[in-house]
Amino acid sequence: MGTNLRPYPWQDPWVKMATHTLPIQVGWPWAAKPMGRIAGFINRCFVYSKSLKISKGIKIPSDCAGCDCEGDCANNKNCSCAQLNGSDLPYVSFKNIGRLVEPKAVVFECGANCSCNRNCVNRTSQQGLQHRLEVFKTASKGWGVRTWDTILPGAPICEYVGVLKRTEEVDGLLHNNYIFDIDCLQTMKGLDGREKRAGSDMNMPSLHAENDSEAPPAPEYCIDAGSVGSFARFINHSCNPNLFVQCVLTNHHDVKLAKVMLFAADTILPLQELCYDYGYVLNSVVSADGEIVKLPCCCGAPDCRKRLY
Ligand SMILES: C[S@@+](CC[C@H](N)C(=O)[O-])C[C@H]1O[C@@H](n2cnc3c(N)ncnc32)[C@H](O)[C@@H]1O
Ligand SMILES: [Zn+2]
Ligand SMILES: [Zn+2]
Ligand SMILES: [Zn+2]
């Protein structure tokens, strides 16, 4: 815990959960159990990792061309990464933190093959945690994540990390609550009611691996944060969320393997819970005996859809 942080009295006791660029705390608001047991409970469940782990047999390409800018790409009108994003960079810099101007089908960031500097605004998702956050016990949704700081719209929150796997290799949601499908391609095609975003109609051969001009109905890859993950695995669903999911490409252009980032959709005030729309298709989860499984939603939004799936 940073020395500049003091716990709110009603959140005592605390436990340090993991080291990130900024502190993440775990708080138990009702102090109902001895801290050792809570720490043991949370730590036994998963291994903390700040970065994505890749399953054996999956190869992440790293061969795309980079820009040849010097310094920050925001100062270079001819940046080739800006061209990939449709002529403008997707981020603007505010108080030295990049902010995403609008949700996009996909964001092309500068990466290992670009010659700009490490703090280029077009590397915003690579700059690590920018806000003080807390993992806390919610009243009805298990653990959740809330902020200690005011977060501005478009600010990066975190990457959803875990183990990158082929979807066919993982047990479904019924057995594992922490699976995140990488559905960037399906979003671009507007499948299953997904809302199309700016740039969805982009026709770039390099965006798609091999010949998948027709998006497959189900995502080929997913991130499994069941046994390995960061605090991101504790962010709950809301039907009226204050975060949104954004696919980001840095060192390659295969959207099926895009990095999954969460960004702030609104101004988020201290102690507000962070949440995004899990986007499950209703009636899509079926038990072994063919019954539709329903999970009630406790997000509390006035327009709550009442079910996650
Ligand atoms: C990725 S986990 C989120 C962290 C989880 N709350 C925990 O304690 O580990 C997803 C699970 O959290 C719960 N959850 C998330 N959002 C919810 C909501 N709006 N209403 C009810 N349960 C929710 C459900 O059990 C869901 O399967
Ligand atoms: Zn750059
Ligand atoms: Zn550039
Ligand atoms: Zn809801």
SSE series = EEHEEHEEEEEEEEHEEEEEE
- Total of helices: 3
Report the sheet with the most strands, covering strand number, pairing sense and barrel closure. 4 strands, mixed
Strand order of the largest sheet: 1-2-8-9
The tally of beta strands, per DSSP, is: 18
Helicity range of the residues?
under 10%
In angstroms, what separates the terminal alpha carbons?
Answer: 37 Å
The average pLDDT value, as a whole number, equals 83
Rg over CA atoms: 20 Å
Given as residue ranges, the uncertain stretches (5+ residues, pLDDT < 50) are 1-19, 29-40
Query: Which molecules other than protein and nucleic acid are bound?
Result: S-adenosylmethionine, zinc ion
What form results from the Cα inertia axes? Answer: globular
Beta fraction of the residues? 15-25%
Q: What structural class do the secondary elements suggest?
A: mainly beta
GO biological process, one term: methylation
Organism: Triticum turgidum subsp. durum (Durum wheat)
Region (Disordered): 195-216
Domain Post-SET: 293-309
Description:
The protein has 309 residues and is mainly β. Helix content is 7%, strand content 22%. It is built from 3 helices and 18 strands. It has helices at 35-45, 80-84, 184-188, and strands at 14-18, 24-27, 47-48, 53-54, 91-94, 97-100, 107-108, 133-137, 143-147, 156-159, 163-166, 179-181, 221-224, 228-229, 236-237, 243-249, 259-264, 275-276. The strands form 6 sheets. It has a 4-stranded mixed beta sheet with strand order 1-2-8-9, with helices on one face. The model is unreliable at 1-19 and 29-40 (pLDDT under 50). The site of one zinc ion (ZN) has 9 residues, from loops.
